[in-house]
Amino acid sequence: MIEVSGLTKTYGSTRAVNDLSFEVRPGVVTGFLGPNGAGKTTTMRLILGLDRPTAGAATIGGKPYRRLGAPLHTVGSMLDAKAVHPGRTAYNHLLSLALGNGIPRRRVDEVIEQVGLGSVARRRTGGFSLGMSQRLGIAGALLGDPQVLLFDEPVNGLDPEGIHWVRSLMRDLAARGRTVFVSSHLLSEMSQTAERLIVIGRGELIADTTTEEFIERASTGYVRVRGPEPGRVKEVLEAAGATVAESGHALHVTGMTVERISDLAAEHGLRLHEVAPQHASLEEAFLTLTRQSVEYHARSEGER
Ligand SMILES: Nc1ncnc2c1ncn2[C@@H]1O[C@H](COP(=O)(O)OP(=O)(O)OP(=O)(O)O)[C@@H](O)[C@H]1O
Hints:
The protein is elongated and about 80 Å long. It has 11 helices and 13 strands. β8 and β9 form a beta hairpin.
């Protein structure tokens, strides 16, 4: 379990994380979602004790990272996949991590196989693609077989097979009772993996809910209506309280269900050729909810 309470971090005049509080529970994949610059990496660094908070606290299993007796056995993380000594082989990189943390050598072989790097384990990591580095980073996170795992944008740079593999791995870890906290700036990506979402924008909490509920809440749907007499249909629907916009040959109706639209049309003897609910795409929905924060960042960057 990860607990974050009143967490705040400022860098000069930038408030990267602002009074953030949430819990990440075991047994499900929890997505950490926010547009670029929202403060995801900063929050993860604070949880992992890589930076000191300006205010508030973050704990793992009730303790701050610095006070964990065997950190690699408690929490595994992958923040920056490229942060590996380029002259070392993948095997030696993992071996030095293992030896420094009292982890047996055979565990290195196990995780190398688990992440599919067996054939390149003796190659220097400097020549690794981003995808291979991501796999190596994930291997490092798994090394101590920890209860809590944090991954910062783990599918970045992976091919479709790699993406599929990461998603299955996250779900599998959660199914085995681990606490899995994974960041992304794409709601579509999170919707494939995460059961719960912590959504942030501008360093502040926007939502802490199930993925299903978040998508439902974010969806700004309308009903597309088409028929031979659009003018009359519009009049009838508006008279009954709907908002109707014309779009080419169709009407876009908000504030009224498909059933009510059909019933009203039938009552007034109006034929309809199409009554189709439309949902905003996931990314549109997400951007609507986080637009304020995106605009804020676009503005503040422009001002510099
Ligand atoms: N070391 C630092 N010094 C100064 N500003 C920083 C530092 N680290 C982060 N920031 C600023 O804090 C804000 C949050 O950055 P952070 O990297 O945590 O966001 P993010 O959500 O992880 O974004 P991305 O997906 O782009 O990595 C940004 O405005 C960033 O410029």
